[in-house]
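Lab notebook page, bench 4
Experiment: in silico fold of construct C2
Operator: M.H.
Input chain length: 338 residues
Purpose: comparison with the prior construct
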Amino acid sequence: MNHFKAYAATFAKGPLKPFSFDPGELGPEEVEIRVSHCGVCHSDISMLDNEWGLSKYPFVPGHEVVGTVAALGEEAKGLEVGQRVGLGWSAHSCLSCYQCLSGHHNLCPSIQGTIVGRHGGFADRVRAQWTWVRPIPEALDMATAGPLLCGGVTVFAPFLIHGVPSTARVGVIGIGGLGHMALQFANKWGCEVHAFTTSDSKEAEARKLGAHFVHNTKQDGTLKKIAGSLDLIISTINAGLDVPVILDTLAPNGCLHNVGAVLTPLQVPAFSLIAGQKSVAGSPSGSPTALDDMLAFSARHSVAPITETFPMSQVNDAIEHLRAGKARYRIVLENDLV
């Protein structure tokens, strides 16, 4: 039998333990990836804890997968056995709805997440539809590329969605797992980059990552100095925002774009939107073409996440490290399953 080896939890918030399963016959559109590395995203913890009510157990996390193609279904296109590839949040879409046919596969009504009703990449192998298995450029290091497949494309997509020009002034809220990549993308895009943080201790690193200006939002009057100046603000945090204050920093036609999964409703004053023709938006990960664009951009401009590496056999230590807020800034598991 063709058993996959993995780490799975059998109940919400439970520890990850060795787990094996038979994935069945390879589907005609499927690609089997031999996993070399897999990033650990906060969404893995949300799913592990069943925070969103979507989880099924036993649950194998992992949706920032890099590795090589081990096998191809007979209808899988554009890939070769042995090729370097990556897999992010999404693993399957219908390919026939309006959204898929217009290139917005990530908005497909029947989209399937890599770890939603499926076993993910904390394993020696994982499967997904060929559409979502994307080639990794040779210039990118497989050991650190994993977080680009979810966190990276999540903060890259707003630049595509809003058609951001290189002359734009872009703000990034949060200098963490998502924010540290958003700062790099904004800088390499050519924008004037503003980092929002609650800690002066992060200023030096924010500037090193590409911020031209750093604003401590806990200091009174800090944001009033940039009122009406920013074209786009990307919020990467999963905590509540003082939306009225943030909206005041936007220029006319500016947008506050949320990619942090905030569980509490945003309090958005209508007049703040109306007066400056401003908007509040959000987006889920990215399409296959957005993934390709992001990977090509990262390869060309040397954008890479800052990572810490754990052996996959120490996955529970890695999870606790992330839970404790100690990750700087993304964790990657190296497959040591034998």
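Observations: Residues 29 and 284 are 23 Å apart (CA to CA). The domain at 4-150+286-334 is CATH 3.90.180.10 (Quinone Oxidoreductase; Chain A, domain 1).
Next step: discuss at group meeting.
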